[in-house]
Design goal:
The chain is an alpha+beta fold and 308 residues long. The protein folds into 2 domains: 6-125 and 291-303, Gcn5-related N-acetyltransferase (GNAT) (Aminopeptidase, 3-Layer(aba) Sandwich), CATH 3.40.630.30; 134-264, Aminopeptidase (3-Layer(aba) Sandwich), CATH 3.40.630.30. It has helices at 16-25, 35-41, 89-97, 137-141, 146-157, 168-179, 188-203, 241-245, 248-260, 275-282, and strands spanning 6-9, 45-50, 55-64, 67-70, 82-83, 103-109, 122-132, 161-165, 207-213, 219-228, 231-239, 266-268, 287-297. Strands 1, 2, 3, 4, 5, 6, 7, 8, 9, 10, 11, 12 and 13 form a 13-stranded mixed beta sheet that branches. A hairpin with a 2-residue loop joins strand 10 (219-228) and strand 11.
């Protein structure tokens, strides 16, 4: 039975002030769920809302061949149910059950505070990595493994240097070029959406771009860091061949940590389920955190190959 307190709200009717306040007060609030980020990163989103924005859940959705579906947009790792309170599993289940029937396919990553137990969805587990920065630099660097320390020193010996980048088109061209083989599903339109989010974040001092440069002043690695709720996301990171050879990303992350040490911040590496990437993050002392994905396909069998 659908909870009558949960209502579907069209995008144009969402009270963005109350929405953002709910995300800001949530113990698991994250930048992906703010209205400014969703408005820029995806073409369309609606919402499920309980009462006067006591609990909220964004529904990023689209349609193909006349079929409407809910999906997880690129550059948005976690969404799900947000509230001032930690949502009990039954609350999460009720929100998932309340997704309107018009959406025939649902593929969504929930946030760290959501533990679904609903049987009508396929549930899978994912891993991200967190590193708390409210400690001494010596303390954090003592957590680095030998491989991380060795690669930082290698970058220093190669005369790699780190600087902030303010040229957003240059950053995105570099990122798209170096991720096209690893992530061919991410198209130019998705990078244009990311450009809008980065522009807003930099203008409002919510994010910054770090670049690693070689001795010839050529960009060889870059990351967009964006923050909210005392959490900074490591987003859209990439290196070119020279950056990989010179271990530039190791020095870039170490520099970001050094610049933010002692702050009440947590660095979220935004992944990964891939063992090699997970080892890279854990090499900085980051600890694994679990979050869930939910999947539901109500399509006839012949249409089950639809993709977002």
């Amino acid at each position: 039975m659908i909870n009558p307190e949960i209502r579907f709200v069209e995008n144009s009717d969402i009270d963005r002030e109350r929405w953002d306040q709910c995300v800001a007060n949530s113990p698991f609030g994250i930048v992906y769920a703010y209205s400014w980020y969703l408005d820029r990163i995806c073409p369309h989103w609606d919402a499920l809302v309980w009462g006067n924005y006591l609990y909220i859940m964004p529904l990023v959705n689209n349609s193909k061949l006349g079929i409407r579906y809910v999906y997880q947009p690129f550059f948005t790792q976690q969404l799900g149910v947000f509230s001032n309170f930690l949502p009990e599993p039954e609350i999460v289940n009720q929100f998932l059950h309340a997704i309107p029937e018009r959406f025939r396919l649902t593929d969504m990553n929930l946030n760290l505070g959501n533990v679904p137990t609903i049987s009508s969805f396929k549930i899978s587990q994912n891993t991200t990595f967190h590193l708390e920065l409210h400690q001494s630099l010596t303390g954090i660097r003592s957590l680095y493994n030998a491989n991380t320390r060795r690669n930082i020193q290698k970058a220093v010996q190669n005369k790699v240097f780190i600087s902030q980048v303010y040229d957003i088109p240059m950053f995105l061209k570099f990122t798209q070029t170096n991720l096209k083989d690893k992530s061919p599903e991410v198209k130019s339109k998705h990078y244009l959406a990311l450009q809008k989010a980065i522009s807003y974040a930099l203008y409002n001092q919510l994010g910054e771009i770090y670049g690693a440069f070689d001795s010839g002043n050529n960009l060889i690695a870059a990351v967009f860091f964006v923050g909210s709720n005392q959490k900074v996301i490591y987003l859209a990171a990439s290196s070119n061949t020279r950056g990989t050879e010179q271990s530039a990303m190791f020095l870039l992350i170490d520099t970001f940590i050094q610049n933010n040490i002692g702050k009440n911040l947590m660095l979220d590496f935004e992944g990964s389920n891939i063992p090699g990437v997970a080892r890279f993050y854990s090499g900085f002392g980051a600890l694994p955190q679990r979050y869930y994905s939910v999947h539901q396909n109500k399509l006839p069998n012949l249409l089950r190959l639809i993709k977002k």
